[in-house]
Amino acid sequence: MKIGLIGAGGWGTALAKLLTENGHEVKLWAYEQETVDEVNEKHTNARFLPGVVLPDALTASSDPALVTAGAELVTFVVPSQWLRSTAQRFKEYLSPDVVVVNAGKGIEIDTLTTMTQVLKEELPNLRHEIVALSGPNHS
After folding, report:
1. Distance (Å, rounded) from C-alpha 20 to C-alpha 3?
2. Helices and strands (DSSP H and E) totals, the chain
3. Per-residue pLDDT for 88 more than 70?
4. What is the DSSP letter of 60?
5. Taking the alpha carbons of 109, 114, 117, 122 in that order, is the dihedral positive or negative?
6. Residue 14 and residue 86: Cα distance in Å, rounded?
7. Cβ contacts of residue 131 below 8 Å, gap of 6+?
8. N- to C-terminal Cα distance for the chain?
9. Cross-sheet strand order for the sheet of 2-6
10. Confidence class of residue 134 from pLDDT cuts 50, 70 and 90?
11. Do 98 and 82 contact (CB within 8 A), yes or no?
């Protein structure tokens, strides 16, 4: 399956690693170009997931179009305070048929809105319900 994973923090990178190791084609989106370069060149993400070697097949980009091109599933794993603006950034690149997963935690401070609801508000043209991956975790 082609997967776009949006958010290269510790949790996002750990999910990307696991999905890639299970045979999926994963493209990881990072806001920071230095993170993109490190993932692609050194196969590590020392800032957010120190000591972990990433699969060679895992690639990263800061370009929303590249990360979502042909994706059957897109997972948002960004801090709650950045989810709305990140969803707005990706909106034009998402196919209505893509399955969207929220793997972020928390609520939006100003509105007290859950992360899944933020995605529903910002991505109204999706044909599938938004899925939430939640529970206790630490990468």
Report:
1. 9
2. 5, 8
3. yes
4. E
5. positive
6. 20
7. 99, 100, 101, 102
8. 23
9. 59-61, 25-29, 2-6, 73-76, 99-102, 131-132
10. confident
11. no
Q: Answer whether 36's CB lies under 8 Å from 57's CB.
A: no
99 φ, ψ (degrees, to nearest 5): -90, 125
Domain residue spans in the chain?
2-132
Structure tokens at 104: 């972020």
Return the CATH number of the domain spanning residue range 2-132.
3.40.50.720
Under DSSP, the state recorded for 52 is -
- Report the mean per-residue pLDDT for the chain: 96
User: Measured between alpha carbons, how far is 107 from 118 in angstroms, rounded to an integer?
Assistant: 9
> Does residue 43 contact residue 56 with C-beta atoms inside 8 Å?
yes
CA dihedral 92, 96, 97, 99 (to 10 degrees): 70
